[in-house]
Amino acid sequence: MSDASITDIAQAEQGTSLWHDAWLRLRRNRLALFGLGILVLFITIALLTPWIAPYGYAEQNLDLGASGPSAAHWLGTDIFGRDLLTQIMYGGRISLAVGFIATAVALLIGVTWGAVAGYVGGRVDAVMMRLVDILYALPFMIFIVLLMVVFGRNLLLLFLAIGAVEWLTMARIMRSQVQTLRQQEFVEAAVSLGLSPSTIIRRHVIPNALGPIIVYTTLTIPSVMLLEAFLSFLGLGIQPPQTSWGLLISYGAETMEEYPWLLLFPGLALTLTLFSLNFLGDGLRDALDVRGSRD
Amino acid sequence: MWRFIAYRLLQAIPVILAVITVTFFLVRVAPGGPFDSEKAVVPEVKAALEAQYRLDQPLLTQYAAYLGDLAQGELGPSFKYPGRSVNELIAAGLPVTAELGLYALLVAMIIGGVAGIIASLKPNTAQDYLPMSAAMIGICMPSFLLGPLLVLVFGIYLDWLPVSGWGDIPGDKILPAITLGSTYAAYIARLSRAGMLEVMTQDYIRTARAKGLPEWQVVTRHALRGGLIPVVAFLGPAFAGLLSGSFVVETIFQIPGLGRFYVQAAFNRDYTMILGTTVFLSTLIVLFNLLSDILAAWMNPRLRTQFSEH
Amino acid sequence: MSLRRTALKLLPTLCLCVTLVACGSGESRVVQGNRNGILHYGNGTEPQGLDPHIVTGLPESHIVRALFEGLAVKNPFTLEPEPGVAQSWDISEDGRTVTFHLNPQARWSNGDTMTAHDYVWSWQRALNPAMGNQYAYMLYPIENAEAFATGKLQDFAEVGVKALDKHTLQVQLVTATPYFIQLMDHYSTFAVHRPTIEKFGQATDRFTPWTRVENIVGNGAFTLKEWKLNRRIRVEKSGTYWDRDRVKLNGVVFYPTENISSEERMFRVGQLHYTQTIPLDKIPVYRAMENSPYVNAPYLGTYYYLLNINEAPLQDVRVRRALSLAIDRERLNNTVLHAANVPAYGITPPGTLGYQPPKLFGHDVAAARQLLAEAGFPDGEGWPGLELTYNTSESHRKIAVALQQMWKDALNIEVTLSNQEWKVYLDSVDQMNFQMARRGWIGDYVDPNNFLDLFLCDGGNNNTGFCDPQYDDMITRQAPRAKSREERYAIFYAAETLLMEQMPFIPIYTYTSNHLIHPSVRDMPSNLMDSLNLKYVWLDQNWEGAQ
Amino acid sequence: MALLEVNNLGVSFVTRNGTNRAVDDVSFTVESGQITAIIGESGSGKSVACYSLLGLIPQPPGRIDSGQALFGGRDLLQLPEAELRKVRGRDIAMVFQDPMTCLNPYMTVGKQLVEPLRYHQKTPAAQARRRALELLQEVGIRDPESTIDNYPHQFSGGMRQRVMIAMALINEPQLLIADEPTTALDVTIQAQILQLIAELQRKRDIGVIFISHDLAVVADIADQIVVMQEGKIVESGDRTGIFRHARHPYTQKLLAAIPADSKAGATLSPEPLIQVRHLATWFGQGRKQEPVKAVNDVSFDIRRGEVLGVVGESGSGKSTIGRSLLRLVPVTAGQVLFDDTDVTQLKGRALKDMRRRMQIIFQDPFASLNPRMTVYDTLAEPLLLHGIENRSSVARGVLKLMDDVGLARNFVRKYPHEFSGGQRQRIAIGRALATHPEFVVADEPVSALDVTIQAQILDLMLALGREYGLTMMFISHDLAVVRHIADRILVLYRGEIVEQGTGHELFENPQQTYTRELLQSIPGRSLLQ
Q1: Interface-testing mutation among A11, A17, A185, A198, with chain D (most D C-beta atoms within 10 A)
Q2: What ipTM describes this predicted complex?
Q3: Are residues C384 and C466 in the same domain?
C-alpha cells in the first residue's frame, strides 16, 4: 500500500463525528458562543458558590431587613437582611440543576416515546399517543400532591415530576417530525440495508429531528425553573432556607413596589439564562443542520 | 370529512374514560378530604356529611354511580359550594373563561403573528432580533409577574385601565387578555417566524415575484397562508391551555372564570368539582385539537379535498 | 384570506378601546358609593353558601349576618350583647334558664312575623345530625342538645328549648353558661324561614336552592339582590327589618377578593371601601401615610406552634421550653411582621373580656441554652433534628424562616422546614404526623374558655398529645362552678399557668385585624371579634371636609 | 433591433468561502419571434444570468458586477426596483422548472392566473377571469370553466405546467423566459409541452429564452443556441450550426451524451435469479375506498447477470415493483422467488441476510442520503452491519468503495450537501455495493442528473455491474436511457406489463400503441436519426 493511502486511512479513522463538526460550526457563531459563555459562567459560579459566596445563605440580619444595593450587599438584602447576591448564587445551583436535569429527563422520555410512536405507527402509535393525551388531561396538582405523599419529599422526585409533565409535548413534536422523516428515502435506504428499527431511529431519524427539539428544549428549561417554584408551593420542591430563582422571583413579585431589587436581580438572572439558552439553542440547531452551513 | 371527525371523536371516548377513572381514584387517595378544616369536625357531623355525598359507600359503588350520573350529563353536587351543582358552576365560569381565552388568543395572534412575520422578513438583522427578543421575554415572564406589573403601570401609575373586574368597568378586559396572551404570543411569534422563513424560500414565492407583485403583496397574498399553518395547528392546544391555565390571571384580576374553580377544586378536595372540571376540560382539549386540525386542513387545499372526498 | 380581513376589521375597534379607556376610569366606585350609600366591601373569598346552618367561614358570616339576625347582637363598639330579634331576655338565678322575649315587630323579609316556634324548628334543624352543621356545638350548652346532635337522643322534645308562646322562647342550659347570650350572635344559632326551606326540599337537605336570590327569606337588616359567582354579592336595605330606621346604608356589595395583593390594588384605585386584610409588606407604606386608611386592632386569636410531645426530643419539657425561650418575639414582630401583631406568651389573647393571661417567660437565650444542656444537648450537641410543618403561605414562611435562624443562633440546633399544601397540612396535623406544626386559633366567642378548652385530653383541636387530668378538672369542673367572674378567671389563670409550664405548644403572637378602610366609612369600629355589624355603618360624603 | 441585448453580464455570489463568479462576461441577444436556448449543466450560470436580468436573485449574497441588458431601449440592470417590477410579469414573463412547487398550493389556479393582469393592467375582475378562461383553453386545458377554481394539486404535472404557461402569457409579454420547463415531466408530456411552447411563440411572434441542461430537448424548437459552462459562454450559433458543426469540445461532449444506441445483446445464462409470479401491490385508502392497484398481477423473470430495464411514466407502478421486490413496501399477493427463496415470506434474521443480497439506488440523491452522516459513516454502516469489515478494517473498506465508485479519497469526511448531484449518486451506488449484493434495483438513478453526468453514471453502473457480477433492475421513464443500459426492457402501463423485449426489438418494432407513443416522445429524435 502506498503512503498516500495510509494517510487517507488515518484521516478516515480520525474521529470527526456530527457533534464534532457541529462544534466547529458553533464556534463561528458569535451569539451562540456568547450564550454558551454566559451559561458556563453561571454553572461555574453555581459549582463554586459555597466557596465564593459573600455571605452564608441562611445568614440573617433581621434588624437590617430589606435594603437596597450597597457596598456591603451589592444586590441588596431581603426582608430577613439576607444578602441577595448570595441568595441568587445559591438559588442558581437549584434552578440550573432542576432546569437541566428535569429537561434532560423530559428529553430522554419524550424523544424516545415520540420517535417510537412516529416510526412504528399504526396501532402502537395510536395507543402510545392516547396515553399521552390521558396524561395531558389529568389534574396535575393532585398528581403532584400524591407523588409527594407516596414518595416523600426529595429533589430527585422533583426532577421526575417535572420531567413527567414536560415530556408530553416533547413526544408530540418528536412524533410529527419522525412521521415526515419516515417517508424519506434515506430511511428507506437504511431499511434496505437491513438495519434494525432501533438503529434506524437512533442513527437516522433522531439526528435529523433534533432542530425543533433543541429549540423547544431551550424554551423548556426556563419554564421548568418557574414550575419548580410552583411545586415548592405545593410542598414538593425545596424548603426554606434553600432557595431557587423561581422562588426568589415569586417572592420578589409580591413586593415589587416596595423592594423592586428583590424582583429585578433574580429576574435578570433568569432572563439572561433564557437568552443565553436561546442563542445557544438556535446556534446549535444551525450547527447541527449541516446543510445550512452551505450558504 | 365527517368520517374523519367521527373517527377522532370515537378515539377520544376511551381517552376521556381513562382520564375519569384515573382522576376518580387519584383524588380519593390524595391526603386530606373535602370536609377537613382547621377546626376539628365532630365525627358525627363528618359521618352525616359523608353520607350526604355517598362517601360512606364502597369506592367502586361510588365510581359506578358517578359514571351513571355522568352518562346523564350530571356532574353531581359540589362539595365546597353546597346547593350548587358542578354543572352550574362550570356553566357560570365557562363563558367568562372562554371569552378571556379568546381575547388572549387574539392578543397572542396579533402580537405574536406580527412580531414573527416582521422578524421573518429580514432574518438575522435587528428587525429579526428585536421582536423575537421581546417575544422571548414573554416566555420567561410568568403571568404572576406580568399581571401585577401591567396593573401597576396601566392601572395605578397611569390610571388608564381598571385594575380588576370583568365586564364591570369599561376596559377591564384588556389587561387580563394581554397578560394571559403574552406567553402564547411568544410561542406564536416563534412558530410564525419559522413558518414564514420556510415559505419564503418556496418556489411559488419566486413565481409571485416574477409576476411583478410588490413585496408586501407577495407576503400577504402568497406567503401568509402557508406560513401560518403551523400557527393554526397550535391554536387548538393553545386555546385548551388558555382555558385550563387561566387560574393565575383570573385570581390577579378577580375574574369569575373556570380556571379558579379548576385549581381551587383541587385545593379544596372538592371531588365532584375536580372530576367535573377535568372531564369537561379534557373533552374540550380533544375538541379543540380536532378543531385546529380541521382548520389547518381547511387552510391546506390539498388536505381539504382529501377530506371532502372521504 | 379571511384571517387577515378579520384582523383588519378588529384593529380599529382595538384602537377605539384603547383611546376610550385612556381617558381614565372615570369616577371611582367609592365616590359613587359614598353618594348612593353603597358600601363596597372586600370579603376575601366567594362564600360557600348562605345557609346559616351550613356555612363555616368568615366571609360567609359577613353576608349571613347582613341577611339574618340573631336573638341578641353584639354591639360593635363594646361587644356587649344588645337586643336583636329578642327585645329582652331573663336569666334565672342559677343561670340555667334563659327566657327570650321576641320583638313583636321582628319580621321575615317576606313580611311573616317571627315567632319563638321559628327558633325551635330552626335549632332542631341546626342540631340535626343529618344536617352536618359543623357549628352545631354552639348550641351544646342547651340541655340534651349534644345528645341530640350526636344521634344519642332521637326526640327533640327532650332538648331544653321551648316556645312558651308566640313571642317567648325558653332555653334550659346544662350548666350556667355566662357566654350563652353571646352565642346568639353566631350564625349557627340563627333562625331560618321554615316555609321557604320546605318549599325546596327537606329541612336537612344541603343541596336545595332556597338561598338563591329569588328564593331566600331572611330577617336581617339587608336583603339579597344579586349573587354573581366569584364576582359580587349585592344586598340592599331591607324594608321589613324591625330596626330599619337605624340602618343608614342603602346597600352593600361584597367582593370575593381572593388575592390580597389584588384587593389592596382595588382599594388603592377606589374600587373598595374596605379590605379584608393587607399584604404584610404594604403595612409600613400605609402606616406612614397621612390620614392612613390602615386600621390595626387586637383580634381574638393566637398564632402558635403545636409541639407533638410524644415525639423525641419534644417529650422533654426542657426542650420545649428551651425552644420557646430562644424566640425573640419582640424582634420577630418588629422586623418581619412590621409590628403588626402582639407577641404572645400564652394561649389566651390578653384582655379577653377582662382576662389577662399569665406571662411566665420572655426571651432568655441563657436560660434556653441551660435548659437544652440539661436535656442533653449542650450547645446543640447530639441534636436529633426537628421538623417544622406549616401550610404554604407567605407569612407562615417568613415566620418559620426567621425562627429557624433564631434557634440556630441561640441554641445551635437545626430545625428543618416543611411547607405543605393546605389539605395535606390539615391531614398531617390531624394524624399527629408532625413534630412541630404551625397553628392558629380564632375565638368563636369572647371567653378564655374558648381557648383553654383546646388542650383538654379529648379536645378535638388539642393535637399535641398533652393530657393533664388536673387541667381538665380545672377547666371542665371548677371553672363553670365559680361564683363570680373573678373567681372563674383565677381558675383559668391557674390552669393556663400549668399549661404554659408544660409548654405543649409555643405561642408566637396574638392576632390583630389589619384592614384598609376608606376614611369616608363611619361607625365601623374595630373590635376583638372583628365583628361586622352593618346596621351602624354609614358613609360620609364629606369626609374630606370633615378631616 | 434585438428584443433583448445582454452585454458583458457579470454576476457573483459572496459566500463565506469567498466570492464565486457565477456569470462571467456573458453576452447574447434574443430576437423577437425566435427561441433562444441556453444550454448548460447545473452550476453553469444559465439560470442566474436570466434571473439577474429581472432582479430575481437574492442580493446579498448575489451581486451584479457588470454589464447591461437592453430591453425596449432601457437597461434593465439600471432600473430601480419599482420600475423593474413593472417589467416583470408584464413585458417579460417566466415559466419555471417544477410546476409542482411553483404554483401557490393555497390559491386557486384562477386567482393566480389573473394576478398579473389585475396588478399590472388593473383589469376588472370579471374581465380578467374571461381572459384567463380563454388562455386556459388556448394552452390546452380541457373544460377550463369547471377547473379554473381548482387548486394546483388537483391538476396533473403537465396540466400545471400549462397553467404556468398561461399565467406567463396572460399579459401578452414580449419575452418569455422558460427555465427547464419540461425537466420534471414524463417524456410524453415533455413532448406536448415543447410543442405548445413552440406553437404559442409562433402565434404571438414573441421572443423566448429556453433554459435547459439537455441539448436534445431543444433540438426541435430552438432557433438560436447558447452553450454555457462555468459561467461563460463557450459556443453559440443557430441550431443546425451547433448540432452539425459543434466546435467546442464541451458542446461535442454534450452531443455525445445523448444516449442513442441500443445495448448490444450479451450472452446470458438462462438461469433466472429472480422469478416474480403474480405480484400485486395495492395501497389501501381506508375501508370503503377502492385500493390503488399500483402493481397488479405482474410476472417476469430476471436472469443472472442481466440488466432488466423497466419503463413507464409516473403512476405506472414501476417504482413500486422495485420496492416490492426488496420488501420496502408490503406486498399484497404473489411471490418473489430470489434464488428459490420466497422473499415475501422472510422474517427477522433471514430477512436481514436477504437484504444484504439485494440493494437499491434511488432517484433523488438529495433525499436518499442521510444529510447528517458523512460519506464515511454512510459507507461504513452497511460494512459493519453485515460484518463485511470489522472496526479496524472498516476504513480501508470505505476507501476501497470510494475508489470503486470514483470518488476522491479526501472527500471521506464530507457531508452529502457538499457534493454535486453526480457525486452524491456515486455515494449512493457505493452504499448499495457495500454489502456485495447480487441484485440491485436502480430506481431512476440518473433522471435528476445533468446529461453529461448521466452518461458517466450509466457507464459507471455498467462497469461496476460487470466487476461485481451484478444482476440489475433499471427503472426509468426515459426509454433512450433504458435502451442504452438494459439487456431486456419491460414496458409498464397502469400497473401491468404491456410489452417486453430487447431494446432493439422495441425500438425497431414496437407492438403496442403505448410503446410507440413513448418512442415518439424521445426528444431530439428527428435530429438523431
Answers
A1: A185
A2: 0.81
A3: yes
